[in-house]
Amino acid sequence: MQGGLFVIEREKLALYGGQPVRDCRKDARPVISQEAKEEVMAVLSKGTLAQFYGGTQVRAFESEYAAWFGRSYAVAVSSGTAALHVMYLAARLPERSEVLIPANAYVSVLSALLQAHLIPVIVDLDPQSWAMDPEDCRRKITSRTSAIVAVHMYGQPCPMTELAQIAEAHDLTLLEDCGQSHGALWARRKTGTFGRAAAFSLCCRKHIALGEGGILITDDEELAATARSLAHKGKGEGWFDYREMGFSYNMTEVQAALGRHQLRRLDSELERRQRLARWVQEQVAETGLSFPLVPAGSTHAYFKLNALVPPELAPYRNEIVDALQAENVGCDPSHPHLLDIDWIREQRPYFFRTLPPEERPSYGPEIAPVARDLLRRQIGIEVGPGLDEEDLSYTVAAIRKVMAYFRAAYGATGRKP
After folding, report:
1. Separation between Cα atoms, residue 173 and residue 184, nearest integer Å
2. What is the pLDDT of residue 412?
3. Quick one: 67 and 153 in the same domain?
């Protein structure tokens, strides 16, 4: 034994020809009830699949979604990226102003800023919570800063009390990307209710999964009206009322009907993910994996159970993920540090070339070093929809097996024996 784990021979890993812990992989997929299927079929039979500004199902979904969060308005759109785009534009942030985003944000957070002619400034992560670091936010604020976007990656809430205080002290707009954090709490308050507005993704394996879709919520009536207009070609209520350049970001009636049913089971989906994530963490406590600190009074929503491999195994992170996948369980590498994406680091989009040299952001290798260390070691363990205790027991067995081998083989020196 080593470090409480039995040493595993290389040949026992499925990646190298051994028998996997599970015969075939079960993917996380949305749970679609019979009632939801019948409602979708009713929409198809009716024939009204979409309407400008939202049909009956879209408006009902928006109302119910806003109510779940205790917000006044919701605007449903075609994707999470579309929700971010119209949120940035509807917030009326000054063009070419700087917006602070964390280094671990999903790429859409940044690309939507560029679409809105805003300058992304990359902020580091807290080494304990792996969320946006308020101290680095303070360091990155300049006379050109207009907003902070708190991105609750993997469902881990950002420190919203402190970020709200920073935004207020510097007269900045606070926005939230809750694409992976439906129902997560910060200080017993739901993420998505701290900023002027919040954007959500409703795709794939999200807590509310429509295949594709997005929605934003706000208490700001003017922002909501502007976002709705932007999502519907920039039009007002009149046929010839074209107010500004807009986009075709409509949500369909089918998506909304499905979303209403998904929303009704959101509480149970959150409970399932949190219960399973806690159990997995307990079961793999001796494997060398570490998990983010979740402060008292706050909750992680667990889009995925994010974990770190030990520092000495950082060079083998991708191989560890490959080995877990070969065991037929769900695991992925972390999304990269934003500045490890070539087109961002090299500032290839045309918008960057329109900026004078003194306004171009610094995207050098020294930016957000804590995030760089964390993200090269981070993995995402699947706890998504449709998985149960039996499924996660295979995940636990795979983690124990794979980590036992890698810690024995490479743990002492970080080099192959």
Report:
1. 21
2. 56
3. yes
Residues 125 and 39 grouped into a single domain = yes
Q: What is the pLDDT of residue 416?
A: 54
User: Are 249 and 279 in the same domain?
Assistant: no
Strands (E), 202-301: 214-218
Looking up residue 283, the CATH number of its domain turns out to be: 3.90.1150.10
Residues of the chain with pLDDT below 50 are 1-5, 414, 417
Number of domains in the chain: 2
Q: Nearest-CA neighbor of 4 among 284, 375, 369, 366?
A: 284
Catalytic one of 190, 206, 304, 401: 206
Calpha distance 223→138 (Å, rounded): 26
> What would the DSSP string read from start to end of 102-113?
ETTS-HHHHHHH
- The confidence score (pLDDT) of residue 9 equals 82
User: How high is the pLDDT of residue 204?
Assistant: 82
Same domain, 190 and 123: yes
| pLDDT per position as a tens digit, 45-80 | 999 888 877 799 999 999 999 999 999 999 999 999
Of 265, 288, 310, the domain-final residue: 265
What is the rounded CA–CA span in Å between residue 66 and residue 289?
37
pTM: 0.95
Give a yes or no: residue 354 inside a domain: no
Half-sphere exposure of 100 (CA within 13 A, CB side): 29
- Structural domain including 326 reads 10-30+266-335+372-410
Are 255 and 189 found together in one domain? yes
12 is catalytic: no
Question: β-pairing, 189-190 with 185-186?
Answer: antiparallel
Q: How many residues does the chain have?
A: 417
Determine the pLDDT at residue 2: 46
Last residue of a domain, one of 208, 243, 265: 265
Q: What is the pLDDT of residue 5?
A: 47
